[in-house]
Structure formats: C-alpha cells, structure tokens
C-alpha cells in the first residue's frame, strides 16, 4: 500500500507534475429523495513499465427529505473513492466520505467527513484522455491534495463543508482535520464558480477557482487552481491553471477538449504540462468512448509525453451514474 503511494507520487513528479437564488439540483446539491452520481471503471493498461487490470470507482450518494416540503432539509451523503490493481501491482485503496446534511434555502452544510470543495462541485471534472489510472497518478496536481492523500495515504479526515448557490454563482468552503497515518494537519479549502450564458457556438462559459491551505506542523502550504470551461451540447473546451506548494513546488497548465458526435460516440484530447523544481514535462493523450444501454460505456486511450515519458495505453468498460 505504501509502495504504490510512493510509486504514484514519484510518477507524478517524474511526469511532472445571478442574483436570483435557484434551488439546489444534482452534483452534490440538494435533491428530493435518493440521488447517485459518479462512475465505475475497469480497464486493461500498459504504460511501458507495468501492465495489468485496473479498477476505479468514484461515487456520491445522497438522500434528503423533500426540499419543497420543509424550510429545513435533512439528509445524509456518502461518497466512495476506490482504486485497485488486480494484476501488475499491489494497489487496493478505498476511502469513504460520510456526512450529515442540513439544508436551508439555497445553502447546505455537511458535517462528518464530506469531500473537499476542491474535489466536488466547482472545478469541472474530467478524466485525462479517458485513462483512469493515469488520471489518478496526476490528480495531486490537478485536484485536492486532501482527497489524493485520503485515497493513497489512508488519511481519515473529518470536518465540515458549506455550499451556497446565488443565481449563476456557486460558493463553497470546507475545513478538515487529519490526525492519523503519521500526518497531523488542518486542510482549508475555498472554491467558487460562475456561469455565463450567451448566444454563439459555445453558449455556456464557466469561470472557476479554488484555493487549498495545508497546515501541518511547520510552514503552511497553499495550492491554487484557476480555470475556464466553455461548452455546447456537442463541444466542451477547458483550461486549468495550477500552482502547488504540496506535495512539491509545481506549476501546471492543462488543456482539454471533448466532442460528442452523437448520443453514443465521443472523443477527448488532453494536454498537461508540469514545470518547477527543475522539471519541465508534458503529457498528452487522446481517447474515444462509445456509450450503450444509456449509462454503460467502452473506451480506449493512448497517451505519451516528452523527456522519457513512456507511451501508455488503456482499454476500459464502465458505468456512469
């Protein structure tokens, strides 16, 4: 378990790495009854060094009372993040995120072990070139370091989270403490997004940002994320800029584009550049996906890079919720 953690972080470093209130809906906001979002994925991979079968699951389940029936809404949420190498490795990691929910108007408070706001609800989620294993290995530099550490290093965070919706603007804050697995630190995160709608080929544009503060024994570390995503029914284009103090001083620039040819077939292209601490590496990849039975899918991916980054392949089958 520790070996795979060191391997993943080492691979990352080597590769490196509106004014009117609206009701909550989906993506972690309040809904009536039971709701589940996320995906499960099983893939065969070959990265030039290892090959085998890799499983990934990232799910969020939520149950709330009817938000239209009461001024105060009560509920419960449970997130699960898991990864396992069935062959070619020893990874078998899983993390749960249980929390109690209290909702009032367009505000929601989650208490227990909710996800970081950097990890859900504000920063658009993509899988790098449809390769879930590669995406996990770089997630410390594109997402929440708390979430990465919870999955890979067996953190057990507890804390609270606030989400608010104000027209086309969403704002979130989360605070967590970790005091186990040889780590004692507080994690604070603030995230926001604002969506513009307009006429044109890309009628919806979202600007987003997030900051995560890691406060261990010693100097605090700050991670920043800024980005923009434009989309239509068929096309999705995005850019993400990151500056990380943790786990190492790194700057990232990620570009991605996804095109939906029809209800069943789509392609994605991703490019990610890591700079800092004597590192200047670029990873790029393309993927294709075919969806059937509404939510099931099969996909294929190829990725490569400069400065001795090996070519990697993945073929997967999965289910989206």
How would you describe this structure to a colleague?
By secondary structure, the chain is mostly beta strands. It has three helices and 16 strands. It has helices at 2-15, 132-138, 145-152; strands spanning 33-46, 51-64, 72-85, 92-104, 107-112, 158-166, 169-180, 183-197, 204-216, 221-231, 235-244, 250-260, 265-276, 279-292, 296-305, 312-320. Strands 1-2-3-4-5-6-7-8-9-10-11-12-13-14-15-16 form a 16-stranded antiparallel barrel. It is globular and about 50 Å long. Mean pLDDT is 87; it is low at 1-29.
List the defining traits of the structure above.
321 residues, mainly beta, Porin, 16-stranded antiparallel barrel, 16 strands, 58% strand, disordered N terminus
Give me the secondary-structure topology:
Layout: H1 2-15, E1 33-46, E2 51-64, E3 72-85, E4 92-104, E5 107-112, H2 132-138, H3 145-152, E6 158-166, E7 169-180, E8 183-197, E9 204-216, E10 221-231, E11 235-244, E12 250-260, E13 265-276, E14 279-292, E15 296-305, E16 312-320
Antiparallel strand pairs: 1-2, 1-16, 2-3, 3-4, 4-5, 5-6, 6-7, 7-8, 8-9, 9-10, 10-11, 11-12, 12-13, 13-14, 14-15, 15-16
Radius of gyration: 19 Å
CATH superfamily: Porin
Q: What's the level 1 CATH class?
A: Mainly Beta
- Sheet bearing the most strands, described? 16 strands, antiparallel, barrel
- What's the CATH topology name? Porin
The total count of helices amounts to: 3
β content, as a range? over 45%
Look at the structure and give the mean pLDDT. Answer: 87
Looking at the structure, what is the overall shape? globular
- The H/E string reads HEEEEEHHEEEEEEEEEEE
User: Which secondary-structure class do the elements indicate?
Assistant: mainly beta
DSSP strand count: 16
CATH architecture: Beta Barrel
Distance between the termini: 29 Å
Total discrete domains: 1
Model regions low in confidence, pLDDT < 50 over at least 5 residues: 1-29
Spatially, the strands of the biggest sheet line up as 1-2-3-4-5-6-7-8-9-10-11-12-13-14-15-16
* Helix proportion: under 10%
